[in-house]
Amino acid sequence: MCGIVGYNGTRKAVPILIDSLKRLEYRGYDSAGIAIFNEGKVEVHKDEGKIASLEKTLPDIPGNVGIGHTRWATHGRPNKVNAHPHTSGNISVVHNGIIENYQQLREKLTRSGYQFSSETDTEALAHLVNHYYKNDLVDAVILALNDIKGSYAIAVLCGNQLVAARKDSPLVIGVGENENFIASDIPAILKYTRKMIFLDDMEIAYVAPDKISFFDTSKRPIEKTMKVIDWDMEAAEKSGYEHFMLKEIHEQPKALHETFAGRISELEGAIAFDGLKEEQVRDINRISIIACGTSYNAGLLGKYLFEQLAGIHADVEIASEFRYSHSSPGSLVIGISQSGETADTLAALREAKTFGGRSLAITNIMGSTITRDVDNSIYMRSGPEIGVAATKTFMSQLGVLYLLALYFGKGKGKVSSDRMKRMLVSLRQIPAQITRILGNKESIKKYADKYSSASDIFFIGRTLNYPIALEGALKLKEISYIHAEGYAAGELKHGPLALITKSTPVIAIATKGLTYDKMVNNIKEVKAREAPVIAIVDEKDSEIEKYVDAVIRVPATDDILSPMLSTVVVQLLSYYTAKARSCPIDQPRNLAKSVTVE
Ligand code: M6R
Q1: Catalytic residue among 46, 167, 392, 593
Q2: I need a labelling partner for 228 at 20 to 30 A (CA). Which of 196, 252, 310, 326 fits?
Q3: Do 337 and 484 sit in the same domain of this protein?
């Protein structure tokens, strides 16, 4: 929920910390701060608001070691006092996560004479480390962490010593030449190094300029493996686009290409995933998909695909609800999470695993927590996504789900070799078809501009298009702040039709398929209430334009694949609507990219 960074090396720490923090702002942006060891003492600077406000207040500090934080408030209001780092004596701490027993710790530490100046849970941790510190920072951190319940990724500075630790919140150590880095996420430090070591839960790292030592919570040394990340730096920059979101929408053809690379052979009509074996498929009789937000919407499309292509019954569950539903999951549980760190999804997956059964993660982040909790992981390979609104990762999730459903369909004998080959050829064409839609973005912008002053907008679709209606509404509400509803079009007449008036634009996803005729009827229903209707249709459709105010055409493809193409249209409509309303598109209010609290 927050972003943390650390640096220990030979260069000035401040510019590196500030630059890395800016790349983590998607994780939180209500206040920020740094602590630097300089000329024998630690200097702390904090401010309310974004990193840029903090940067303006900073003097020139030559120090070569420091920590930094960008916050998304959980305990305590977003203000300067509650901003991290929190300090106690010579100890400064930045923290991402939640300390659940902080109230008890606070009372205990207060009785021992420590004074609290903030409302945060993190300050208790700073005092605890100070309380235990007797010349060995690793010892003090271990003792303090033993007293803590909850989740954390922390960086602790004491003089020129830097220590990091994690439990249930992500943390990566970047390895450089005579300098080393700490960050909540890879893109923050990708400019400085591609060599990364992923900290696991309950591990502690002592980070010096020329050496990194790893320990478990009994201070036994641990060997860690370094990974070289192949994302390029450009992937973490805006590269001339006004917003990351627009850039990431444009990166979807490339992202999908990567998702498919090495996994499909259209000549042979074959799909292969590392670590998945066809014989495992035979035992699957029910699939439970668990996810949140956009990943849930991808999962809902996955449900239809598993049922239609593989004949396997699938449920899709909102992770935060599944945990308390007491329902037993299917023989395969699939967790979908681009970040691999969403607390609700992780907790629900752990709950689901108590029922036995196999588990599979679909994620974009190598080494993320979800990958350690499951039997198999499939990487989406979207590259880094910085905009809070998920776009290219949604597309890659869909790409993986199509492949998986076809793979299962083949394993269950439901997809013939011929069908498989045809589907794979069509899938391969999707990236180029997305590029064609992107080439038409100005006409999509025209409609976004026209309806950008609406107060309520509906997205409707049926069967495979229903998840895309949900995703369109989610995108629009989160970045434009317009109230939007995604509805199964057949459900409108059971209540929401009462809201449809001439001031309620309706985006109708009406590509060809099983329910096309029914969808035409649903469009007529909203038109009869005078709603302005924009229909997303196949390029060959000549019927719907008679009934609607505008049509946006997508290239013709296999009916079952068209949701990938409609997705791009709803993303662009949302993006341009938010732009017309001058919204902070990449960092919408109250939201963070990675939600590591339940
Ligand atoms: O990292 P995850 O895929 O688990 O994130 C789940 C949701 O928080 C996420 O999809 C969210 O809904 C999107 N950022 C919205 O665009």
Answers
A1: 593
A2: 252
A3: no
Name the region of 49 (left: φ>0; alpha: ψ -120 to 50; beta: rest): left
Per-residue pLDDT of 542-594, as tens digits, reads 999 999 999 999 999 999 999 999 999 999 999 999 999 999 999 898 888 77
CATH code of the domain covering residue 53 = 3.60.20.10
Distance, CA 14 to ligand 1 centroid (Å)?
31
* Ligand 1 cavity residues, CB under 6 Å: 292-295, 337-339, 342, 345, 388-390, 474, 478, 594-595
Number of domains forming the structure of the chain: 3
pLDDT tens for 472-485 read 999 999 999 999 99
Q: Find the 594 Cα to ligand 1 centroid distance in Å.
A: 7
Same domain, 503 and 523: yes
Q: Which of 2, 158, 292, 583 is catalytic?
A: 2
Q: Is 55 left (phi over 0), alpha (psi -120 to 50) or beta?
A: alpha
Give the CATH number for residue 365: 3.40.50.10490
User: Residue 470 belongs to what domain range?
Assistant: 440-598
593 is catalytic: yes
Contacts of 215 (CB under 8 A, 6+ apart): 138, 142, 203, 204, 205, 206, 221, 222
Among 407, 439, 471, where does a domain finish? 439
Say whether pTM exceeds 0.85: no
| Ligand 1 midpoint to CA 548 (Å) | 32
What's the rounded Cα separation, in Å, for the pair 116 and 109? Answer: 9
Give the span between the Cα atoms of 389 and 591, in whole angstroms. 9
Active site residue 158: no
Indicate if 200 and 244 belong to the same structural domain. Answer: no
